[in-house]
Amino acid sequence: MRVRSEPSTLASKLSWAGYAAAIIYWAFTSASIYLNPWFSLYTHALSDLAGPRANAPWVYNLGLVLSGLAAFLYALAIILGSGGRLEVVGGAYWSIAALFLALIGVFPAGTRPHVFVSTYFFFQAFLAILILALAHIKRRKRVAYTLASLYLLGLLGLALPWPSVALAETYLIGLLMASVLTYNLGYLARRHQQACSR
């Protein structure tokens, strides 16, 4: 008879999906850049890789949908491994961000909803980071301060005069990746602390 995994154990496994989302996204984006030699990080937007001019736009779009699915699993990890209601809310916000990430692939550049879904993805994801920072403020201050710093760096990035949209997007994506690493390391530390206290 198979014993079901405890929520914390399942959350630990699903937390790796956060890394998978980044790997999938950049793997498909790199392939798409290779297929579109005209593309430049210094003059275009990343979504141009699926725009009217793009060769094989489905490559970039598929990467967005698959990374959105992985990001959703990561959101489930946050919810299942949460230490309180506010952390659950942060995970829920991440799940919505993951949905909008996938929707960017469904509504690529040149379609009417594209600007909204792509903008809202970043808005929702950074809001999730802020909520998770607040959720950790009493229990894991280092995690909370790091996440809050990443949120503020995101706001700063929006104010900077970037040479292109692609560079701004790459910067923001890098911050999101750093938030996943920060949360996962904080979660692993919490699990280790719980195991030692038993």
Topology:
Elements: H1 7-14, H2 17-35, H3 57-80, H4 85-106, H5 114-136, H6 141-159, H7 165-197
Helix pairs in contact: 1-3, 2-3, 3-4, 4-5, 5-6, 5-7, 6-7
* Element order: H for helix, E for strand: HHHHHHH
- Specify the biggest β-sheet: none
Q: What number is the mean pLDDT?
A: 90
Alpha-beta content class: mainly alpha
Strand content: under 5%
**Helical residue percent band:** over 70%
Describe this structure as you would to a colleague.
With 198 residues, the protein is mainly alpha-helical. The chain has one domain. It is 75% helix and 0% strand. The protein has 7 helices and no strands. It is globular, with a radius of gyration of 18 Å. The model is unreliable at 1-6 (pLDDT under 50).
Condensed summary:
With 198 residues, this protein is mainly α.
Descriptors for this entry?
mainly alpha; globular
